[in-house]
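To assess whether the prediction recovers the assembly geometry, we first specified each molecular entity separately, as shown.
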Amino acid sequence: MAAHLSYGRVNLNILREAARKELREFLDKCAGTKAIVWDEYLTGPFGLIAQYSLLKEHEVDKMFTLKAGRVPPADVKNIIFFVRPRLELMDIIAENVLSEDKQQLREFHILFVPRRSLLCEQRLKEQGVLGCFTNIDEYILDLIPYDGDLLSMESETAFRECYLENDQTSLFHTAKGLMTLQALYGTIPQIFGKGECARHVANMMLRMKREFGGSQSQILPVFDTLLLLDRNVDLLTPLATQLTYEGLIDEIYGITNGYVKLPPEKFCQKKQGEGGKDLPTEPKKLQLNSAEELYAEIRDKNFNAVGAALSRKAKIISAAFEERHNAKTVGEIKQFVSQLPHMQAARSSLANHTSIAELIKDITTSDVFFDNLTVEQEFMTGVDTDKVNTYIEDCIAQKDPLIKILRLVCMQSVCNNGLKQKVLDHYKREILQTYGYEHILTLTNLEKAGLLKPQTTTRNNYPTIRKTLKLWMEDANEQNPNDISYVYSGYAPLSVRLAQVLARPGWRSIEEVLKMLPGPHFEERQQLPTGLHKKRQQGENRTTLVFFLGGVTYAEIAALRFLSQMEDSGTEYIIATTKLLNGTSWIRSLMDRPDNQS
Amino acid sequence: MAFVTANWNPLGEAFYRKTELYEMGWNLKDGLRDCLFAAAPYGGPIALLKEPLRRSPSARPLMEIYSSSGVSMASFLWKSGVVKQLGWTVSDDLLCIQEDGTVLVYDMFGNFKKHFSMGSEVVQNQVLEAKVFHSPYGTGIAIVTGTFRFTLATNIDDLKLRRLPEVPGLQGLPSCWAVLTQDRQSKVLLASGADLFILDNTVCTAVAPPGLSPQATSIVHMAVSFSYKYLALFTDSGHVWMGTSNLRDKLSEVETKIRAPPKQMAWCRRPKSQQPSVVIMWDQQLLVAGQCKESIQFKQMTVQVLIDRLVYRKLYPLAIEICRYLKTPEYQGVSRVLKHWACCKVQQKEEADDVIARAICVKLGETAGISYSEIATKAYECGRTELAIKLLEFEPRSGEQVPLLLKMKRSQLALSKAIESGDTDLVYTVVSYLKNEMNRGDFFMTLRNQPVALSLYRQFCKHQEQDTLKDLFNQDDDHQELGNFYVRASYKERRLEARIGLLQSAVDEYYKAKNEFSAKVTEEEMRLLRVQRKLEEEKGEHLVGFSLHDTLSSLLAVGLHKQAEQLYKDFRVPDKRYWWLKLTALAEKEDWEELEKFGKSKKSPIGYLPFVEVCVKHHNKYEARKYVSKVTPEQKVKAHLAVGDLEGAADAAIERRSEAEISTVLSRCSPTTDRALVERLNRARATAAKK
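The predicted structure of the complete assembly is given in tokenized form:
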């Protein structure tokens, strides 16, 4: 069930089908019944490629989570480990294999996702188990389709590895993933990029293309342009609280692999006579994607426009149900009945989103939310960014969640092109005394990543950047937006502005600003085989793939979708990233927690 | 002119005709008696081993290889062990399976290629019988040993030996057996008397062919069709049973009236018939039994195979012509032929390295999909390292160069190539190789010149080798990282003294790194730990490891106000933060009396709205009201609203003539609110708006 992947400008279901085919082929290689032992991190992303039914069709009878000790008993011929290539996982696998009962003639296999690793195989060899595996294979799952216009590698650590640890593994996978994409959707003739990582990925892509030599893709290119953007070109956007519906769901409850878990109280259907008893205690789990008509309609709206959209929808649905009174003839009744399932689905979808909107509204109308947003907006508009902020001090004094504090302090630093040493040290000391000295490592990390820094020059570039790129729009229209700034109620995400300017009038118009942002900007062209040059119909939109290296927020995605839909934009966007993130998950990935803390 | 289609016969969907192309060129005086022989599939070469049982050094068996037309291609004396079986692989390599389980591999020109073993237990038990079989997975070998156990390898190029389960009650060699490929698995079908068994990886299953003539008491011969789809069984009663190899359907049964076991039995197609049939050969007789109901057709001999065969015969120009004629994609066709040619070229010992390298480069040029690293590997295997390095230079895929460079001990070069490829796994591989190969000093020095490799190795050490990590930082005089390292280590340390010791090391490093701030706060941390321990000892409160904030809260919670006060002074906690903290702690404890005293102690640096709000948060509006009057005018409305005093809020808002505040109060009014109040607010708002 992934029809929603094929509705977009680019049929991403092709990618999913290719991934499914490869999975089936691997499963068939291990003849007979099998049990899969999962690296737990992989189950979420895999769920988007194949449900249990597919596995079952290929004789997967049991599933376990990878754990130390022995693999639980299961009457199967094959045990297959689905794992990321990580050394610590190899040690667990070795333990599993070595403690296997010799009487059982179960065969072992490993499937590395997304790539096999010599280092891991070496480790298995050292542990003396390498020979125990009948098949050691790789499952190249780099880019996973999350929606009709959205691909993610869901690599949680990508940003940290690239910008903190100088480990470019995820960029190698990105380049490989883009090669796979080009194999399926044709060579992308134009590549633009901004940032060190973007440059590195583009270099690898061009090199890989040379290496593949003759096996050039003979497919008519689907994408006209690829835009590679480093997350560190725009450190500001993820720090701001997203104000679209989907963005807020993610900020408040966190969306993982297309699912959200919500507090159950609002979702229980009260039946007569049951009163308050039997309240569900398990969180309500909902899948969120464009397969749900209503969600597709409201996800990218500013939250303030969601209420109106929901009540409009409510009217339409009840009108549709009223139709039954008009159905007189058998034919009419039949017609009505045939539409019932669709209408009922729409009604339950409406009920769900009304409940979610209520939950969110409780939060967005609170003083805490309002005060926080006010300070964010002050920073983004450049108000008093050079002094210690009283609100932040008060929040620290009340020991508000640390990540909230870090988001605000980092935001102030970014909007001020660094903080005065005195201001920075004051914040750091306040944080260390309140939350514990161990966070000195986290603070160091944030400094390394450029999120927090002492001012080195007195010159602050941010106001220039803000003005040139029109990052702040005074009268953002939340109900009927005419600019991307509606996604943050005034702030237009820098990253998306770069994409917008690139499409029209081109980056040449903003050379000065590009120079202020970190890393090189560049353009590369890839030769197409003759005969594959696209003849554009008049009025036909260009398709651009925007790849965010280091992560992207739902609000940025919403802004790009908004651009795709604009009448005169001339460009449609497909979005790819190493990770779907928000300020909280992003900052968390950069934290350094000593073992005795977590 | 004769009718042109007259001699064409149907074969499945296609037609064929027979034309005599040549006569066999060989001259076999003794026929095939006392010979082991094998012919390669699709009309490949034929191997003969004469008198295989001869063992004396003076009279050894003779191995001869002929082309399919009987032209001698090679012959040599067999000096190795006793051969039980000969066979050919799909890529025209000759397999000689010896009694001791060793398999020797030769190319069709009689050059030795490699050898492998069918398992150590075979050496003792010996191979009694062996069979070579072909499947989509390659060429396989099955053997039965002296203990009547079967061992099987499905693909000799990716050797995985499987010892098949025991056959219950089998006391001698099976009367006949064959290898089947079913459900993507190779299995052995064997007959022991009238019993028929299928052996797969895990179980031995007894099976019965449906409708087998009841007169049969033993199955003496069996044949499986090339596709593994059909099976023929010959019984001691002279019946030939034909059916599907899964033993589900019988196709037909023929009574031959001959009871002697045949020499050979095979599946074929009869001219003018579309059905597969079975040919059975005895010494003097030949019989064709058939009429199966299904038709089958194979396209196993693909263009690929054809080109391979030409290449194995070193007929390069012809192969290239055919590729061009068939428009085979370059990387499948011409490139492959050229690669084989080059692999052959590097073995020409008489030519100099550069001559060969140049020749290869000129001929291969930029041909797409050429793997120079494969050619270089070949050169290296022939002992020509210099040539190999020269050839590797042409390899566009830096990743491909790495394994060979390592093998040739050019590890520095391997490292730069690995980095160039962007494949971090490859970099890790080279790094771990270097680590084992070099002494530590050189190893570190090498890494120092390669920052990418160094960062990756640090990543590795962070998870795997903490001590090495420290050495790396030391070597680079990276005091900041060393400081961080000690801090991190201190959190893993449970004993307080050791922990403080590590923190002291961190402080020293931070000072060396000129990072005064980190040094100072780490010193502060050490000081806090000591105070916490002292307080723990004196007051019995668990404090060690808490943040300063939590320590203060804990002290206040148990009424240790003096101690808290001391800490606040010693650690120079800003007043504002301390007031917040104490306010929260006292409210938490519901110590309202102490709170009031605190509020009056001096002018609050955080104002009094927090007092109102914190009391309300702890459900004490009574206490909260005490502070409303002390709140600044700007916060009055908020304070009144917090304690639920709508009227007070209204008064404050109206007094301040603030439209926004009046609106806030109005938004809190409900239908039960006094009408007069609402009207008063509305009027005031209207006035305020006019301004």
